[in-house]
Amino acid sequence: MCCESKRRFLLLYATQKGQAKAVAEEIWQQAGAHGLEADMHCISEMDKYNLETEEDPVVIVISTTGTGDPPDTARKFVKKIQDKTLPPDHFAHLQYGLLGLGDSEYMFFCNGGRTVDRRLQELGAQHFYDTGLADDSVGLELVVDPWIDGLWLALKKALQLQKEKEGMNNSVDAVSSSLSTALHAVHELNLSSEVQNLKLEDEGARGSDLLSQKLDDINLVAPARDTEPSLVHSVLPLSQSALNIPALPPEYIEVQFQESEGKNPHLSSLISEASTFEVPVTKAVQLTREDAIKTSLLLELDISDTAFEYQPGDAFCVICPNNISEVEELLHILGLSEKGDDFVCVKVKQGTKKKGASRPQHIPERSTLKFILIWCLEIRAIPKKAFLRALVECTSDAGEKRRLQELCSRQGASDYTRFIRDSNVCLLDLLHAFPSCKPSLSLLIEHLPKLQARSYSVSSSNLYQPGRLSFVFNVVEFPAGPSRPFSREGVCTGWLAELIAPLLHPSKNTLDTKGESSPTEKISIFPRPNNAFHLPADPSVPFIMVGPGTGISPFIGFLQHRQKLREQHPDWEFGETWLFFGCRHQDRDYLFKQLRCFLENGTLTHLKVCFSRDSSTAEVAPPKYVQDVLRLCAKEVARVLLKDRGYFYICGDKKHMADDVSDAVVDILSVEMEADKLEAMKTLAVLREAKRYLQDVWS
């Protein structure tokens, strides 16, 4: 192996929605500037690398999906390394560093990365660099950026030690010199805030991971008098700081307009996860009153002519388009209004510097421009810093250019979080805020992620209603704000609400209406089975359900299924069932008042409801939230979980409900077990591990 190849390291990524791949590409781009070569592959491409014989350091970037699972692209890899016949020294030769991406809003934070990390350690692999765990709920870059910064010294040290072990003493001096130089550079960086000044127009900046500027480099417009920062305006010290901004990502996509006619691809070709089914919407009911704060809708789909199968507790995905008016607005800004129906051919740009460049799998090679913008690209995605960096090059106004540089710089990290990430800003918002920014279509294809199908919990039982699938959702609303001049509805929920408007029956707040209509509208769906969130296999086992608001959705399916089983098997023993439901107002958003029917026929043993916004004249105010009602039933909850070995299910909003419910359960266990809080938390952890405390939550 030649000397140059010893400066190689293996870079693997496992991604679900593209974030881990983007981070890996950033590492690959920066490697060259540090005299290293990253051999980058998706972790699923096991024919292109071999960890059993890998001698160079390995860097792994891996995300987490679902309820703590590794991404789909890592499933085969994880299954392979979890082979119990592998000896404990199987990877004793391997040295690696791992960066996990996750979201602490969910229970099993970074569990995809933790699973791989733990198993590699069990098989004898050694860290050459500490594991990093980045949190998408506060901003991945808060961990990702410093982790990458420290990676280069760790890699060079690992390569140096590797050469020493191999006895290649003639190479040690060169690597030691490189390490010494790097350490000296870091020392200098810490001592001085002045760094090399590079002009944006300098071609060399494209390959650099550091671009610093003084204000003299840009003819800034006169500073605004505002004392508060905003999306388009910064204040001291950021407005006069030298900036460290990301390297300019290499262009790699070319779009050619064609005059010939043709047909757009079928939507099923956009989905690789599972078989898709186009099914009619047969029923739509508005479950909330017009004056409710949120609009909740129930849709029923006819799946009788398909092979679609599900169990109560499962989820499924809806393939949805972007808002048509937003797409047309984007076309107008890009100056392509007249070309929306023209066919385009998307290819990799010849001579691109991007390693392993290929046309994104979610982009058809040939389709109309509108098809790409409507069905393929997530135009509502929050722009990442690499995208902002690329948009700088498309912006002509000096002040706007500077502000975009600030927002993607390390110095502007807090502004990025506040005005872009937390404000849920999308590409259209940026183009309105920075009108001199005129990106190319190829740039959008390079940087906008795949338009993801939206997941919903099933709210029915195929045993109770054969050939039917129901689901419930709130129409999501994003109000206007300083960074977004217009209010918007959720991509999928807004589209569904508009689609089924003709089906909505005037009678509200009941599922017993005859809101049937001829099946005219169809939607495309595919299954997403839930491996754990199902009824207990033994019907005699009791269980507790906690589902305020639309979190009640899967429990309707549970109860329908249980009712049918009771009818079909009168000789079976059935455990008791508890349901804790809450909403704001009893008369406005009590979604399923027919819950009383389940109570009356014995399917539901205990129904506990609460209404957080209703006023009360009672001497003792009733409980407002489900966690409060749980505490009132502490002895029964503890009995079901501890003595009767029952199950506990939670569905709904994580941040404002599921965590509070979890805290309430810990308090209940602590009191009823007469144990301290730590012991109660351990008991809850055991319940989670045994799959008896289960969550289906969203942030």
Automatic annotation (TrEMBL):
Keywords: Amino-acid biosynthesis, Cytoplasm, FAD, Flavoprotein, FMN, Methionine biosynthesis, NADP, Oxidoreductase, Phosphoprotein, S-adenosyl-L-methionine. Transmembrane segments: none annotated. Residues 274-536 form the FAD-binding FR-type domain. Its cofactor is FAD; FMN. The keyword tRNA-binding does not apply. It catalyses: 2 cob(II)alamin + A + 2 H2O + 2 H(+) = 2 aquacob(III)alamin + AH2. It is found in: Cytoplasm. One of its GO terms (cellular component) is cytosol. The keyword Flavoprotein applies. GO terms for biological process: cobalamin metabolic process; folic acid metabolic process; homocysteine metabolic process; methionine biosynthetic process. Forms a multiprotein complex with MMACHC, MMADHC and MTR. This is Methionine synthase reductase. The gene is Mtrr.
